[in-house]
Specification:
By secondary structure, the protein is mostly beta strands. 2% of the residues lie in helices and 35% in strands. The protein has one helix and 24 strands. The protein is elongated and about 95 Å long.
Length: 316
């Protein structure tokens, strides 16, 4: 055990900062430490079963009753740690949030369903990327600088920074989609295109009024294009009915070999010259790519690269 030179509290040998007052610890006993205290520090201390929490500043796993982080010395939020008996620093956390406290936590949800790494988002602008920014997310499908997360006016906003794979938001209910929209259903990446923007072959255009005799395309209002793993355009699916369902086993558009697609997963519709997309209560959700800065609500889910993140607002 290491005795704190400032308050005299005993700390485990591997701690660098005092649990009671947060002062930096020295591996050598303090000069004014009594012989009795030195002997006492050698006496085994019975272990107590205490839960562990994550330090808000350095993300170290620490005992749940820590007043200060034993790794970085940061004072801990009283919501997750009981108040200590030692003298507190002037900047110790109170019940009132301070500017240097995180506003949002992004919790990585593992494929097994368990919670993984937690990433803090501070007040103002936060850049997220694989290599750059204050929020680092290690994933080969995350760009070096991927998106911007901004906390302002009590809400979180997300904007893609021209990343390769974009940022996707899990939809709730029915949402409008525009020409060129990209959305994910299971492992399928689908591209929506309105009929007015279909590519035409050069020979179909005439300046003398002659009508081109192509294949019948009655009631076509758009198409879905399956985007392949290398970014190429795969299968084209014409949209002719006012609404079409997407699923693994049931629907107008099916993906029988994708175990991440529910039997009846999503619906795409066209009403009053507007297209919309809805999730049908699928197990894994439907995710729409963000094309502009978008407000992200508490408990909503973001898909960045291959990482699924749950957004958690902090401090009310």
């Amino acid at each position: 055990m290491i005795s704190c030179a400032k308050c005299g509290a005993q700390n485990p040998d591997n701690f660098t900062h005092c649990l009671e007052c947060g002062a930096k610890l020295s591996a050598e006993p303090a000069e004014n430490t009594s012989q009795l205290e030195k002997l006492g520090s050698q006496t085994p201390v019975p272990s107590v079963e205490i839960g562990r929490v994550e330090c808000w500043k350095c993300q170290a796993s620490i005992p749940g009753d820590s007043v200060f982080c034993p790794q970085c010395g940061a004072p801990q939020n009283p919501d997750t740690a009981e108040a200590g008996t030692g003298t507190a620093f002037m900047n110790q956390h109170t019940n009132e949030p301070t500017e240097d406290m995180p506003k949002v936590r992004l919790v990585v949800l593992e494929p097994t369903g368990r919670e993984g790494l937690a990433l803090n988002v501070m007040d103002g602008e936060n850049l997220l990327g694989r290599e750059e920014g204050s929020v680092l997310l290690q994933d080969e499908c995350v760009s070096p600088l991927h998106c911007k997360l901004t906390w302002r006016d009590g809400a979180l906003f997300c904007k893609d920074l021209d990343s390769l794979n974009g940022v996707y938001l899990k939809i709730s209910g029915e949402v409008p989609i525009q020409d060129g929209a990209l959305f994910r259903v299971g492992r399928q990446l689908l591209f929506y295109q309105h009929v007015s923007n279909f590519n035409q072959i050069e020979q179909s255009i005439s300046d003398d009024g002659t009508k081109f005799a192509g294949s019948p395309a009655k009631n076509v209002w758009g198409k879905l294009i399956k985007v392949t793993a290398n970014g190429g355009m795969g299968e084209h699916i014409l949209l002719t009915k006012p609404q079409l369902s997407i699923g693994r086993e049931v629907g107008d558009v099916t993906f029988p070999n994708d175990g991440f697609v529910s039997g009846s997963h999503a619906r795409i519709a066209y009403t009053n010259n507007r297209a919309s997309l809805a999730d049908l209560g699928s197990s894994n959700g439907t995710y729409l790519k963000l094309n502009e800065e978008t407000e992200i609500g508490d408990r909503e889910l973001l898909l960045i690269g291959q990482k699924l993140l749950r957004v958690e607002y902090l401090n009310g």
